[in-house]
Design goal:
By secondary structure, the protein is of the alpha+beta class. It has helices at residues 2-9, 22-60, 67-82, 123-128, 180-223, 229-243, 286-293, 316-319, and strands at residues 86-93, 96-104, 114-116, 132-135, 150-161, 164-173, 249-255, 260-267, 279-280. It has a six-stranded antiparallel sheet with strand order 3-2-1-6-5-4. A three-stranded antiparallel sheet has the order 7-8-9. A hairpin with a 2-residue loop joins strand 1 and strand 2. It is elongated.
């Protein structure tokens, strides 16, 4: 502050006579000093708010909050601390994206707006996974994505979850510019948000894996009791449902002597009882296709597949419509 004051005093010049314009110089000096004190106070206040936001983030990540509520808090706090004109958080998966959250009007994305990845203007930023800060002349290229009053913006990828990338976009007006410390805060803050969301994802996966492991161990314990073949299959079918809910499980066996495939077991809590022992056709059966391909087969919508024999085993329209097999 002292250095800035000294530089300002150089413009005053020397009066021709003692006392000439002295009061004017004193008044001007007081105005400049007051303006600098005001700016310094605003900067300190912003730093304090940034520190509070980072402290709050540490507390939020410790609680069992949802990913959406955590992202919403991040957007609200970051726009408030930086005095941004507006901001959005978008999620991009593959070739598609959606603007999930929006605050203010500075960014022209609409809430719940869907868009193609090819139309997203900052693809290189996402691919490099590095923040991009736009100011003054850099904004000219992207001004159509922001309101006319905005002179600076930040595009910050802050999390990758499987095939989905989360991106925060904030924009500010010229009267409330951002300095290097503000940009550093935004980068650090959203990096913390991304880490918190990643930890939540890992925690969910950990609980799911623990649940599945518990089921597998219980199955092993039961199998050690040497149950009959039918009991084993019934136990497996019951335990599988605790991991992957299903409508029906069928087991087909191949009769080597007579060289045909037949339905040996059927398990379902919802489908009508299906007669076991019936022969399965060679050409129109999923069982046959899987046996000869030696691979797992997945059909997203069995209703769209008109020829499979398995559709004839039960009332397909009431059970398997829009279901996977």
């Amino acid at each position: 502050l002292e250095s800035r004051m000294a530089s300002k005093l150089d413009v005053f010049g020397q009066p021709e006579e003692v006392g000439e314009d002295e009061l004017k110089n004193i008044s001007l000096f007081a105005d400049i000093m007051g303006e600098n004190i005001k700016k310094t106070g605003e900067s300190l206040n912003r730093r304090i708010n940034e520190i509070h936001a980072l402290q709050e983030l540490g507390g939020l990540s410790a609680f069992q909050v949802t990913a959406r509520s955590l992202a919403l808090t991040a957007l609200e706090r970051s726009t408030a601390v930086t005095e941004a004109a507006g901001g959005v958080i978008v999620f991009i998966t593959g070739k598609h994206g959606v603007c999930s959250l929006k605050k203010g009007e500075g960014v022209k994305f609409k809430k719940n707006q869907h868009f193609a990845y090819d139309d997203f203007p900052w693809q290189e930023t996402l691919e490099q996974n590095r923040p991009l800060f736009l100011q003054d002349e850099q904004m000219v290229l992207w001004q159509s994505h922001f309101t006319p009053s905005c002179s600076h913006a930040a595009i910050i990828p802050f999390g990758r979850f499987g095939s989905t990338t989360a991106v925060a976009i904030l924009a500010g007006e010229r009267e409330k510019g951002w300095d290097e410390t503000t940009l550093e805060f935004l980068n650090t803050y959203f990096l913390g948000i991304g880490n918190a969301l990643k930890m939540q994802e890992i925690d969910i996966q950990k609980r799911e894996t623990a649940h599945e492991l518990k089921i597998v161990l219980s199955m092993i314990k039961i199998l050690h009791a040497n149950p009959s073949e039918s009991d084993i299959l019934a136990i497996v079918a019951e335990k599988v449902e605790e991991i992957i809910p299903y409508h029906w499980i069928g087991l087909a066996l191949y009769d080597d002597a007579n060289q045909y495939l037949y339905l040996s077991h059927s398990f379902s809590k919802f489908a009508p009882e299906i007669q076991t022992g019936q022969r399965i056709p060679n050409t129109t059966s999923l069982f046959h296709h899987a046996m000869h391909s030696h691979e797992t087969m997945t059909i997203d919508n069995l209703m769209s597949e008109r020829s499979y024999f398995e559709k004839e085993l039960f009332d397909i329209s009431s059970i398997l419509e829009d279901e996977e097999i």
